[in-house]
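Running low. Got one?
___
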Amino acid sequence: MSALPKPVPQRRTFGPELSVIDGIGATLTGTHPLTVVLADDHAVVRAGLRSLLTSVDWITVVAETGCDGALREAVLNRPDVLILGQWRQPESGAVISELARCAPGVAVLVFSVAEDDESVFAAIRAGAGGYLRNAADRDDLLRAICAVSAGWVVLSPHIAGRLATMLATPIRHTRPFPELTTREFDVLTLVAAGLPNAAIAADLDLAPKTISNNLSRIFTKLGVADRANAIVRAREAGLG
């Protein structure tokens, strides 16, 4: 499990399972239990999570519900952590966003079978503090609960690896008017800059007749009647 700290993590103490959360760096001093709301549409899954969490004396499950009741129970109980057991767009994203508005102190850990990039990144963008696949083992789940309650962002290693790869990949910017050839796009860019045909021909080292032919094709492809309308379209797209 990989944990990425936010700029100002909240300090918190837990107790007394040193072996479970020593990787988070928390001090365990027997403080009040960490509170959790479980939200999952499957009663069997909720029962399994409840059994696991209640076996730990520093966690208290204060409520459990189906996913449709997640926001209501989290706002009513104000737990340290809401465990959201399924990821469904756009409903789950709306729950997390609304929870951040109504009860900003509640951290959200998504614990879901869905593991595709779109679901993971949508959850993080919505404000989830962590995203684990529900096949994660007991210790990873407990570490994740502790970490998100302390203000960390938690991802399983392969999800974190995919995120790192995505962030390291240069963003490819697509140019406007992909229907134009490279030469036609160059001509349109210079037209948008206000250059006459003769100046464009000199700049591109082409014959003026070639520029005229390119402009005719540009007008047809853009669906405009004349040079003035082509300039308007080009400048609206950021050219010139």
Remarks:
- DSSP finds eleven helices and seven strands in the chain.
- The first helix runs from residue 18 to 21.
- Confidence is low (pLDDT under 50) at residues 4-30.
- The chain has two domains: 2-168, 182-236.
